[in-house]
Design a protein that fits this description.
Distance between the termini: 16 Å
Largest sheet: 7 strands, mixed
Helix content: 25-40%
Shape: globular
Strand content: 25-35%
Order of helices and strands: EEEHEEEEHEHEHEHEHEHEHHEHE
CATH superfamily of the largest domain: Medium-chain alcohol dehydrogenases, catalytic domain
CATH class of the largest domain: Alpha Beta
CATH topology of the largest domain: Quinone Oxidoreductase, Chain A, domain 1
CATH architecture of the largest domain: Alpha-Beta Complex
Number of domains: 2
Number of helices: 10
């Protein structure tokens, strides 16, 4: 038997609970894992609260991240005792995820844990950190250098935003953080932001072209905010988009793209190819300051997950929530 967050939908409606399950009900897969840590991402919070159509089949164990130790494998790439992690691949959406003490999945989904990371360190990053690194690498690949001007990070109090600030500032970029939690200014500056602006500056209706300011941006908000970011990006600048907390609609014109040569590049972390995943995690192992973990992460037991998911939807969670599934 193992503990898990369990979501179902039936005649009585949508239900979520912490319960015990038998290992025999785990879905099929080549690799079985004793999970040690998972996380709560915004997508997990939507799934747990039922506020978004995240789950594609029921019943479901949510959790798009997990890290732990292999207990069984039918694939030669993994053996019992190996430390591994999983992010994305539809885990927690189409396939049972990491908010449980046991998990099983396809071997192609698993990556060896970076040698210098503990399983808790890896989940302090999780999908958020890996996505932030993909955004940083995209800016680098498209020639955005530290001497070209300010880099904007929206949704800066969340996991992706917090980690992106640290990664960019460590590389010498001048980072401006946009957040709805303006009282957390010192938190953002401790991570490396040189300036903090209220999200309201960017979230309302704007003009097709605004005054040029950003050399590049990491946007996790989408919606009107992303439209305004594009409109205020400098000539030849690059905007990476990886989230939609403000919404999926994008009310912008072609003006930034055809008059300023701005590039808007989508960053996908769910089905990102394995080679890009390995490169991102290798870079995180080298560039992520584990000491910063204490600034942006909070560890909770599995029993607090449901309440904290609601708090995340309400905008009351800062940084990363790591879940000790055995606490």
């Amino acid at each position: 038997m193992f503990k898990a967050i369990y979501i179902d939908q039936g005649d009585d409606g949508y239900s979520v609970k912490l319960t015990e399950l038998d290992e025999s009900v785990l879905p099929d897969g080549e690799v079985s894992v004793a999970v040690e840590y998972s996380t709560i991402n915004y997508k997990d919070a939507l799934a747990i609260t039922g506020k978004g159509p995240i789950i594609r089949s029921f019943p479901m164990v949510p959790g798009i991240d997990l890290a732990g130790t292999v207990t069984g494998s039918r694939d030669v790439r993994f053996a019992p005792g190996d430390r591994v992690l999983v992010t994305g691949w539809g885990v927690g959406e189409r396939h049972w995820g990491g908010l449980a003490q046991c998990a099983r999945g396809k071997a192609d989904w698993f990556l060896p844990l970076p040698k210098t990371f503990s399983t808790r360190d890896a989940m302090g990053l999780g999908t958020a950190g890996y996505t932030a690194m993909l955004c940083v690498q995209t800016l680098l690949a498209h020639g955005v250098t530290a001497d070209q001007g300010e880099i904007l990070v929206t949704g800066a109090s969340g996991g992706v935003g917090s980690i992106a600030i640290q990664l960019l500032s460590k590389r010498g970029y001048r980072v401006v953080a946009s957040t709805g939690r303006f009282a957390d200014t010192e938190y953002h500056k401790a991570l490396g932001a040189l300036e903090v602006i209220d999200r309201e500056v960017l979230s309302g209706p704007g003009s097709p072209l605004e005054k040029e300011r950003w050399a590049g941006a990491v946007d996790v908000v989408g919606g009107q905010t992303l439209a305004n970011v594009c409109a205020s990006t400098k000539y030849g600048g690059v905007v990476t988009a990886c989230g939609l907390t403000q919404g999926m609609n994008l009310p912008l014109t072609v003006a930034p793209f055809i008059l300023r040569g701005v590039s808007l590049i989508g960053v996908d972390s769910v089905y990102c190819p394995p080679e890009k995943r390995r490169a991102a995690w290798a870079a995180l192992e080298f560039e992520w300051d584990v000491a910063v973990r204490h600034q942006i992460t909070r560890c909770i037991p599995l029993s607090e997950v449901i309440d904290q998911a609601s708090a995340m939807i309400d905008g009351k969670v800062k940084g990363r929530l790591v879940v000790d599934v055995n606490a």
